[in-house]
Design a protein that fits this description.
By secondary structure, this protein is of the alpha/beta class. 41% of the residues lie in helices and 12% in strands. A five-stranded parallel sheet has the order 2-3-1-4-5, sandwiched between helices.
């Protein structure tokens, strides 16, 4: 854990609801860990990869790394989701690679905490090779690892070892941040855990 995160959380904005940005390179387990957390906590959930413009998806599918210019509108869309939740004081979880500090600066708000899933290139490469349901090819891992700038001590972040089961990783996040399930979470029998309640036009079922 980055030093004094829990002290900051308790004393700086004790009444504010957190927004977690689950970050890391493709294949680190962001979507799975975020879904577990959202289900356990009953928080809003958004998959950052679903917010990419179609041009970005086509580029990555073809094995071409994204540039900073490619990522800018995507990061701004993610930032909008975060700001909507901050302004509404609604807790949420969103996934985003957030590889560079300047990317995280776009997403940074007063009650945002970055959850960095850190794993070896070998581990993540094996996961990517076994994954069949994503447009991100394993060949782009090298470019992501090269671009990665892990969170620094002055950033509000927790660092989670991605070499374990997703359930164990999610449990560590809950423990470190002292999070508790909200009424209606999946642990209490909610039928639709993790559905966004801010700025969403999604159907009820």
């Amino acid at each position: 854990m980055v030093f004094s995160l829990w002290e900051w959380w308790c004393h700086m904005i004790p009444e504010s609801q957190p927004v977690l940005v689950v970050m890391g390179v493709s294949g680190s387990g962001k979507s799975t860990v975020a879904a577990i957390l959202a289900g356990q906590l009953g928080w809003d959930l958004e998959e950052g990869d679903d917010l990419h413009p179609i041009e970005n998806v086509e580029k990555m599918s073809a094995g071409t790394p994204l540039t900073d210019e490619d990522r800018q509108p995507w990061l701004e869309t993610i930032s909008t989701w975060i700001v909507e939740h901050v302004m509404a004081d609604v807790p949420g979880i969103i996934t985003c690679s957030a590889l560079k500090r300047r990317y995280r600066d776009i997403l940074r708000e007063r009650n945002v905490v970055f959850v960095y899933l850190s794993g070896s290139k070998e581990l993540i490469g094996r996961r990517l090779s076994a994954r069949l349901d994503h447009y991100m090819p394993p060949s782009l891992l090298d470019s992501q690892v090269e671009a990665l700038e892990p969170p620094e001590p002055d950033e509000r972040a927790v660092i989670i070892d991605a070499g374990r089961s997703p359930a164990e990783e999610a449990a560590e996040v809950v423990k470190i941040l002292g999070l508790e399930p909200r009424p209606g979470s999946s642990t209490l029998g909610a039928p639709f855990p993790g559905r966004s309640s801010v700025g969403s036009d999604r159907p009820e079922s």
